[in-house]
Amino acid sequence: MTLVKIAYASMTGNTEGISEILEDAFKELGADVERAEAEDVESDFFEDANVCVIATYTYNDGELPFDFEDFYSNLPEQDLQGKVFGVVGSGDSELYPDYFCKAAEDFEEAFIKTGATKGHETVKIENAAEGEDIDHLKAFAKALLEA
């Protein structure tokens, strides 16, 4: 069975909610899912995963969440060839128009260096996921499993 691992960082609860929606979507599609907070993941978190997912917010002026800094720094050194990755970001385009979901973009670049295959374009969500965002997350999950 396909193992999906989701690592997430959340300050306001928005990204945690996104990670829960993703977990449910992957389970509905028949995957095994392990979801963990950024502070609890080690650099080898994705080692045994088939599908690797990061859900993150962007802090202040384009900064990574503090809990993800070490993980992010070590990610490009991981060998994730043969695995599929996807990134989801939440952000606030009104407060930070120049840095909307920048941490998600940074994670995408880091994943590419690991040799993993991008299974879907990075999904960017304005604050909390609702309505069409949930549909996009379900399509994201399906695409990652099919990649």
Automatic annotation (TrEMBL):
Pfam families, sorted: Flavodoxin_1
Highest classification ranks of the organism: Bacteria, Bacillati, Bacillota, Bacilli, Bacillales
GO molecular function, one term: oxidoreductase activity, acting on NAD(P)H
Cofactor: FMN
Gene3D superfamilies, A to Z: 3.40.50.360
Protein's UniProt name: Flavodoxin
Bilayer-spanning residue ranges: none
Keywords per UniProt: Electron transport, Flavoprotein, FMN, Transport
Function summary: Low-potential electron donor to a number of redox enzymes.
Classification via InterPro entries: Flavodoxin (IPR050619), Flavodoxin/NO_synth (IPR008254), Flavoprotein-like_sf (IPR029039)
Flavodoxin-like domain span: 4-145
Family: Belongs to the flavodoxin family.
Signal sequence bounds: none
